Amino acid sequence: EPEVTQTPSHQVTQMGQEVILRCVPISNHLYFYWYRQILGQKVEFLVSFYNNEISEKSEIFDDQFSVERPDGSNFTLKIRSTKLEDSAMYFCASSATRGFDTQYFGPGTRLTVL
Amino acid sequence: KNEVEQSPQNLTAQEGEFITINCSYSVGISALHWLQQHPGGGIVSLFMLSSGKKKHGRLIATINIQEKHSSLHITASHPRDSAVYICAVHYNTDKLIFGTGTRLQVFP
Known about the structure:
The structure holds two protein chains of two kinds. By secondary structure, chain A is mostly beta strands. Chain A has strands at residues 5-7, 10-13, 19-24, 31-37, 43-50, 53-57, 65-68, 75-79, 88-95, 104-105, 109-113. Chain A is built from no helices and eleven strands. In chain A, the strands form two sheets. In chain A, strands 2, 4, 5, 6, 9, 10 and 11 form a seven-stranded mixed β-sheet that branches. Chain A has a four-stranded antiparallel β-sheet with strand order 1-3-8-7, with no helix packed on it. Chain A is globular. In chain B, 0% of the residues lie in helices and 59% in strands. Chain B is mainly beta. In chain B, strands 2, 4, 5, 9, 10 and 11 form a six-stranded mixed β-sheet that branches. Chain B has a five-stranded antiparallel β-sheet with strand order 1-3-8-7-6, with no helix packed on it. The interface between A and B is medium-sized, with 26 and 24 residues.
């Protein structure tokens, strides 16, 4: 069964460093999402992406964040200058059609900012 | 503010028991998702519904649009059902608003 994959599974970085989290969505899916979950808290929407542009973003998704689909398979989340409060689990998801459709989640990347 | 409330926060059950987890939301929605988060953190989509009822194996999800309420039922619960169950809604946008989750533990 097709699945969403994410790399790395765990990333440790120093405050102020740039990180890139990678996702490979399911191949025929058109809509892509990033979510984050701070330890012990609920999952939060970051951004949705369709047709090579952001379709919606949350207030969390400020200028430090960017997303890109650099080729036909990868979908990346970049954090330009990490802060301690960026430490969280980041989930990528994809769906075949617009958000009112089943979203398939990747296993997550745990980001630890020291 | 558009919120999603779940109850109970924690639930323990004996194997074989019938489980109900509730979700309520504040205004009209486009769709509601039930998700399962495993102890390792992975998230699996169980159901997406905008009306009525859906069933998959021992899981049943219902939604009452007028009352702004949804329930997830697990029949004949099993220890492998132990996980966090999360309700999430679309308020007519791509953005999913998540509840805080219900932690279920099923003991043999």
